[in-house]
Amino acid sequence: MNPHGKPRILVVDDMQDNLDLIRDVFENEPYEIVTALDAEEALQFAHEEFPDVALLDVQMPNMDGYELCQRLREMSRSRKIPVVFLTALRINSADVVQGLDTGGCDYITKPFEAGELRARIRAVLRAQDEHNLDLGVAKKVTRRLLGR
Asked: Please, what are the domains in the chain?
């Protein structure tokens, strides 16, 4: 989480209008929205700032969302960032499988319903919080067992 305690969402899309729309969707939510217009900018941000979740467009020039997700998984600092794919493609099960197999945790199609997008991001963040809580408890138990 960022220093202000708000979950940070990295939104990556090569269309500024889409970034503006997503920023508007989360305007009244307790999140910090950070945007990137390409995968390289997103990789740099993810490595330096560590967002709590990444919302990636699938179709982008130079590097698509699937490859970006794979690259995030290869970097130690960004390996565990939950990735949600967002696509205008007409998806089929092979697209969803590819997205999930590359490390994504959800797949949303455009046009999306704003309430559903907010709910899915809340669900991802909630699952991440529960996972982190479980890890914290496990570490405390381990320390006690080892007498540290």
From this structure: 8-146 (3.40.50.2300)
